[in-house]
Each structure stands twice: as C-alpha cells, then as structure tokens.
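Key idea: predict the complex, not the pieces.
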Amino acid sequence: MKSLLVASLALFVGSASVASVQAQPKAGKGMEFFEAKIRPVLVQQCYECHSAKSSKIKGGLLLDTKAGVLAGGDTGPVIVPGKPGESLLIKSLRHQGLKMPPKNQLHEGIIADFVEWIAMGAPDPREGAATKGYKTMTLAESKNFWAFQPVAKVAVPKTKNTTWARGPIDSLVLASMEAKGLTPSAEATREVLIRRVTFDLIGLPPTLEEIDAFVKDSSANAFEKVVDRLLASPHYGERWGRHWLDLARYAETNGNADNIPFPTAYRYRDYVINAFNTDKAYDRFITEQIAGDLLPIKDKKERDAALTATGFLALTSKPRAQNNPDYKHDLIADQIDVASRAVLAMSVMCARCHDHKFDPISTKEYYALAGIFDSSIMLFGNNAGKKGGKAFGYHELSDGGEAMGVRDAVNKVDCNVLIRGDAKSIGEKVTRGFPAVLKSPTEPTINRSQSGRLELAQWMTARDNPLTARVAANRIWQHLFGQGVVRSPDNFGSLGEKPTHPELLDHLTTRFLDNGWSHKKLIKEILLTKTYQQSSAHHDANYKTDPDSMYLWRMPVRRLEAEAIRDAVLAVSGKLNRTPMKGSMIGSAPAKKKAIGGAEESTHRGVYQAMLRGRPLPEILALFDIANPNLVVAQREVTTVPAQALFMMNSPFATEQAKYFAWRVLENKTLDEAGRVELAYRMALGRSATESERQRAIDFLQAARMSQGTVGSDVSPWIGFCQTLFATAEFRYLQ
Amino acid sequence: MTEVPAFSRRNFLKSASCGFGYMALAGLATQDSQASNYQNPLAPRAPHFTPRAKRVIFLCMRGGPTHVDTFDYKPALIRDHGRTVSVSGGIRGNGRALLKSPWKFNPSGQSGLPISELFPHLSRNADDMCLLNSMNTSVPNHPQSFLMMHTGEFRFTRPSMGAWILYGMGSENQNLPGYITISPPSELGGAQNYGNGFLPASFQGARIGEQGTAVANARVGNLASPLTQSMQRRQLDLLQNMNNDLLQRTQVNQDIEGVINSYELGFRMQESLPNLMDISRETQRTKDMYGIGGGPTDDFGRQCLMARRFAEAGVRFIEICHNNNWDTHGGLTQRVPQLCRQIDQPMGALLTDLKQRGMLEDTLVMWGGEFGRTPHGQGPDGRDHNAAGFSMWVAGGGVKGGMRYGATDEHGIRAVENPMHHHDLHATILHLLGFDHQRLSYRYGGRDYTLTDIHGNVAREIMA
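Result:
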C-alpha cells in the first residue's frame, strides 16, 4: 500500500499524469523502458485491483509480478509477448470489449507504450512468484479442509475425571477441558437453571409457580420434565423460529428505493414458527423453502405450507429495476446468498464476479446455480407494488389467501457467465448444477424440464452433504451457549473460524441426523448434559487459562436478545399478550408506498412486531440489536450503548411497564414492605433478594417517600424501584 | 456553550465524588485490571495517517440541486440558449433546448470564484470553498442516488459514510452520540442513509427530527427523566449498586462493566444533548448571523447553528438535511431563489463562525445533493435530473479554498475534466480524515468490505 501511495503522489492522478508521461522523450529499450513507461502506469492505474495488496483482486489477475502478468486472469492470458495485436491487455486498454481501466480510457500515447513494450517481448524485472497475499483454497486442497470432510462417527474419549460426565457430550467437553488443565464448574442452582432454560427455549422468564414447582421437585427427572414442558410450549416456535427469521432476512416491506409493503409476508413468519413448534424435520424444512412448489403434496394444508415456505427466496429487499441492467442478477445473487449462507454457511455470492479465492467456488459454478434461479419466477405478492399495472404475482392458498414465494418459469434456462459480474460482458453458457466442492456420489441430476430447485434442495439436504447438518447442529449449540462450536455460524469456509471442539460438532451432527433432523431432540440431549447445567460462577485458575470460557468450564453469561428483553418486561408487568398475532401489524397498510410510517407496537410478543425495512423498528428491539432485516444474520451483535440506558431510565415504555409491575407487587395487601421487595425480586429476576439487597431497597423506598413528602400508600416510589429492576444488568443477562 | 471534556474513568471518578454512581464506581476502581477489559467501541482511534480533518458537517440537499444555476458557471450555456441538445447514454432530455440560468454569476472573493447571485452571503466565503464541478453518479433517480451518496451502494444495504467514519475514528465526546443526523427524509432509503449496515449498531447515526418538521420542534426521545433529578440520582445509585454486585458475583467483567458505563454516559447525555440542542443561550448576534428568528432562514439557520455546536462538542459526523426539496422539474425561476434564500445566510454564517473559532481548518464542511439537473430545460421553466455532471462544494478540513475542481462540458451536461463520482468523493473524504479508503474495512459474511468497494479515487489536487 505504501508503494501505491508514493507512486500516486509522484505521478498525480488522471489527466495530469497523462500529460507528463507523454511529454517525456521515448526511453531506451528493455528494462529501462519498463521502469519509465510501464511500471508507473501499472502502479497507478492497475494495482488498485490487480496486485497482491489490492483489497479485492479483480478478474483473478495480478499485474504486480512478471509471473502474474504472464499467468493472466479469469479470462485467460492478458499478453502474448511479442504480439501486441493478440494481447487482451491492449484490447482492454483500447476499451474494445473489456474496458481497462474501467472508468477512464488511457491516453493513446500510453497505450502505444504498452504496444511497444509487448512488441519488445514484455521485459519485466519483477521476479518472484505471483503472490496473492491471502489464503486461497483450491478444489484439491478443499478435500482436506475440515468443513468438507464427511461427518465422522466419534468415539467417546476417556477422561481423568470419570464421575462428572453424564454422556458423550459431557465426555467430549470434559476431555478438551482437561487437555487445557481446566475443571468443570458445579451445577447451577435450580433458580438459575430454570430461568436459563426457560429463556433459552421460549424466550420468556419462568413464572413464580414454575420456579417453585421445580425447586421443590425432588424427582430424578425434575429438570427433564421442565425441558419437555417447554419444548411442547407454543412459545418455543416463537423463540426458535425467530432465530431462523434472522437468517431469512425476514421483513414486511421491501426497503431500499421503493419501500412497498409485503402485507402477506407474515404467512411465512407463521410458517416458520409452526415448523419449529411441530418440530418439522430440518431437511424437509429446508426443502420446502427452496422448492416447496415442486414437492409432491398430500393435502391442502401441506400444500399451503410448502408454497408459503418458498417466501424464503422472495422476501428480499429488491433494488429498483430502472436504470439497473444488473437487476435480474441482483435478485438471483440475493437468492443464492440467502440459500448458501443460511443453509450451508458458505459465501458463494463473491463468485458472481470472480472465482472465489478463499473457498473453491468458481464463477462458472456460481452461474450454474444462477441458472436454477433464473429458471424460477419470484412472486412478490399482489399488493407489493403494481408498477405500470404489472402485478408481481403470488401463490394462491386454499383459504383464498396469498403468499409470496417462487415458482418455476415457463422457460427453463441455463445462464451465461457474466464476466466480472457485468451484465454486458457475456461469457460462456453453463449447465445448471452444483459446486464441485460438495460433490457427492448421490448428487441428483437436474430435471431439465424444471428449474432445478428441487434437486438443489435434495443436494443440500443429502445426508452426505457435510455442511447442512453441521451448520444446523452448530447453530443449535450456539443458541444454547451463546457461541457455536464454530464461532462463525455463517461462514464455515476458509475465512471462518475452526471448530473449538471438532469431535463434539461431529457428534452433535450425527445425533441430529440419527434423530431425523429433529431440533427438539438434539436440544433436549444438550440441555440434559452437565455441561449445560453448570453455574456461571467465577473460578480464578480456570479464568486465567480461559477467560472467555471457550472450553466451557462454566456457563457463559449471555445478554438476552432484544425480543426476550422486551417480552420479559411485558411478562413481568403482566401486560404481555401471549396469544399469537393473527396476521400482521401492516396487513391493512395500503399498497401505496409512501403510506408506510413506523408501525404501531402491540403487546404481542416481539416476534410479531412489524419488521419494516428502512423505517425505525420498534425502539426497544432496535436498541438491543435485533437482526437487520436487510441482511442474512447468523449471530446478532451485542452492543451496550447509552441509548439503551436512556431507554430504560426515561422511555414511556419502561416507566409505563414499571407502573404495571408496581401495581402487581402492591396487589398483595398482606405483604409488608420486605415481603414486597422479595416478591418484586422474584418476579423480575427469578430469585430471592439478599439481606443487603432487601435493606437497600427499603432504604430507597423510604428516601423516595421522604423526598417527595408522600405517604406509604403512594405508588411512585415503587414504580421507581420496579423500573430499577428492569434496568439492571441482571435483568438482561442470563447466567 | 461550556466545553464538555472528553470522558475518562478517572476524570469521572473525580468529578462525581458524591452522588450518582459513586459507590458502584468506587467498587469498580478497586478491580481496575479486570475492568480495563471493557472496550468502548466509540473510544477515539488513530487513523491510518495524519488527518487534515477531524470531523465532517454535511449539508445535504435532497432532490438534486441545479448546478448551472448555483455553482457551475457556464458562459456557453448563455451563448447557446435555445439550442437543442443531443444526449444519450442514460442522460435525460434528448432534443430539449438549452436553458440559460436566469441568474447572474458573480466573481467572488479574492479568488474570483464564480458563484450565483442567489448566494450573496455564502459568496463572501468563496476563498474557503472548493467547488467540485465534475461530480457525477450512476443513476439519475432520487432513491438510488441518495443511497449511493450516503452509502456508496444502492442495490444492497451498506453502512452509511458517517457510520464508516465513526467506526474508523471513534468519538471525541463520550457524552454524545458520535454521529448525528438532523431532519433526514423517511423515504429515499430512509434510515439506511444513516444506518450502520453490517457494522455494530453503536456506529449508526442518532436522528434528531425528521424531514417535514421544523427542527425547532425536534426532540430526542428518552432524554427527559420522569423523576426529579435527586430521585433519579437515588435510583441510579441503587441500580449501579445492583450492577456492581453482579459484577462481583460473576466477575464477568466487560459486559457488565459496559452496562455500568452506559448508565454513567446516559445520565450525562441527558444533560449534554439537550443543552447542545438548546440554542437559546447563544447571543442574539449569533442568532441574527445565522438568520434565526422566524422567516425563511430560520429552520436551516437552526440546523447550521446546532451543527456548529455539535462539532464544537466533538461529534464526529453531523449531517443536516435542508427541509425542502430541490427537485425543480418546474417552477425553476420561483423555487430556486426560495431554496437558495433559505440556506444562503445560514451556510455563510456557519463557515464564518467555524473560521472565527479556529475550527474550519479541521472541520470539513460539504454541500450537495444526490445529483444535479439538466442544463437543457424541461417544460418552460424546469430542469430534469442529471447524474452525468453536477456540483458539490467542500470547505475547511484541509481543502484548498477559492478553487474549482474538475469541470463539466461547456454546457454543464457531463463531467469531463477530473470526473468525481460519489465513490471518489467518499475516497477523498476518508483521505482528508486520515484513512486509506481501501484499508478502512470490515469483515462481513466472509468478505472485507469498504465504503468505496472496488471504486474510489482520491482527489489530491483539492488538498491544501
């Protein structure tokens, strides 16, 4: 980068350099000519995209070494030494076909220098291999890359501590702990445990009755009973479905330039929630979303679900078509992106413009996938903006409703490669198919009379696809421990993280597959481990070795997600509407694009609040890092900012809910002040107050009354106290 | 306005020697070794090289301001008035007749920079201004280009330039948001224009007001406590005690400490932000200078004065959006003078005020919209969108004054000399702030992204 900077300063930019270069007398032959005429232009005009130090190397071409120049790029050799007329470089400089540099054609004098240089045989002192400066992976190398290995059967390791582990998961975790000299933590208290598991499974705090029942239950399977109850709760799907909606970049408006509403998008939301509640096999779940319209269907209900599922591919934020020759391929890129990252944790979209350097996905393979989507039609819904009288289409459901989604196009086509992703640079046609890196003997052959989405889904969900089940098992672990075994849950490629416990991941994956791709069964197995049930207590020696508890010597403390914080406030205040929302907050919004304001909030759960792109989201959800509905989000951010503090201190929502909470606490007329403090603690934090906490609270209440000159029956000190409980770190962090 | 010192833990401990948070913080101070794990995402950071500018004020003109009537003087347009043009390649209005500007251009300042007579105040600052006469962008449609101007992309959601800058530099004042946008439009991409995209949420712009509402009535939510100050202090003491207990119990450190910090900062932001927004304490002379006090300049004057106050307090990126629309397809002769009138005096005052306070040298002020307008007419009294050539201007922040950079063709249709795309503007802004635009990157979805993506040339000629 330094060299580029120096060169640019010396040469200036644009037309000034053209003049100065041209004004110089013709230099001598050979290397001097190269140094005087060629190198400066390469440095200034080409290195930005064609050097080892480029932030993105374009066209797979490196011009910073002789070897790179001779090797050429994605479209083949760029020079034929001695033959300028046959050299692609000269044609490109003349903007015949390729246009290089893309924005400004170089002065003819400079091009003449290049012609002369190539005629000389392209003398070039820049020895050394073309160094790409980044990790690359060839197809051959990918055979050894962990993520592309078949899922292995894992033997249960022997551990020094022979009494701790309850099963293979514990043994695997313990073995890696022991390898680092770590010791496991004691079991969490029952109060902590039921709070943890209730939030993890249904995203709500346990009720006082549920806490008491569990604390008092002395049966051996007390915890298992809690887990079974929660997994059977309809709130489970609202919680775990939302994890998937993050990946599906679920939203109810288009966003971008034309923010039209998607008034039927909620049907996809409900489909996802229902799929989790019924524990739909994950392979089926994926298949329906990619190719639900192509599946053999038993009945109306199944058909409705399968058609609605294809909304996954249509919920994107469309760019405007006008003045955008890439429009069609922008939509295809989104579909490829969401499918590859959500299902495979692979970034394939980069290969739209160049062979992917990090993972072995070629541009040809990208366009082989693109053909599948190009043979499909996106149905953005009838209401979603009839521009020029043209409706976008929809799936008609058996109840007369509409669903967004995709269907096969009348004409099934193979795509041409677009060189560097440019819609105007058309390359060879590629037969629809799948990337070779995940080649399998059981790979389906695409039925040419269909789009190929069905086969794509089959290919993704084949038992021997090494990614799909691993990615899903990793995400299940992630949602229970805060971090996946692979800490880059949307990137299992060479730029992603390696698994902290590779054998554990394979064990989880095998269990997931053996249990018929069931989320609930794997979740239950994990929850019943000692690993999950550990406390979060501090331990000096362990902390020094592994401060982040990467090896799970204690349960990591996790910030609750936005919806869980909001829903917990409403649950504690008694104002949460626990029924599923029928339809959507924007369901009745007119199709006219400018009619979208911020949607009203309801007291339904967070998952049902309107998700509008390009408009402020419900404040508490936005503040606590809800997934951006424009992006495929596998792991949410956790930020801590003053705006959250101000919301908890001053917002009408926080003070209003604190008031309802206070009323609930004061409802019980038999309790004294200490008893009420205890009740408030249990309701908000799921535990008793310590003696000093109780005293502090009573002092606060009394001081508040004194300063306001009010009497004991006044609610306002209690509102202040209850609001404080909502505001605590403990309220929003799960131990 | 009193200066707000940059926050530091130790300063705060000293200044808060009683009352809010004292106990909690005293507890924290004893375990500083662990506490220091907490990293504030908005802490100031050093850029790649010595910056010329430390902050940006962007005066955003939505709708596509007409350049040939404001900052791009075209004598040939007067000469060839009425001649039909032949344009293609996505430029609108083929076959329409050239329409000379109804307004005179005056040579302004020592440099003689030609500026339309519609800017009598601003033109006095000509020697500090660098006119960017060769601006161009990809698409002559509002939403795409508005997003392009703000995020460098219109097809996909990307972080806004303010978010990139805050990500790169951090904030100079931890009592305030580091990125503030005043009166942004809710359409044209809406919140995406000041969004954080895939960057952490702490880098998004804090919105004050909204397009269509006078900024005098704009309020920031959640700044006013429903409690008396002493009650709130009591409440916060209780809260911080509880948070500190949790910290002691779990010793988890940076997460909980982050929460404790956020309450400290939030508590002080309650004071500092409304104080900064409250311009009533400015002298009458200052208010007069900005044209505040009713009349056409009041709204933009308030925005400009707020921008100066925010800049002074250490906000890194401030965008103010003119509460009007420059989309003059018709009514040119009536509307353009109104639009210019609304912003002229406030902008002149802003530049003068910054200069008087010694702040112009490291504050980059930038004016412009998503594209310009055709030099050929549309209807009897209007101009169509033109993305092929238009003008913006920059001042201060290490930029040469009294200069025209680049040029459109003789009529102002197309940028021909040193063309400067929005991407190039972004690259140049980042450079002025001390960043190599290719290196200020963030990894998302397996790829390193930058504001300029594969584009962007730095216009070094404009640097002082």
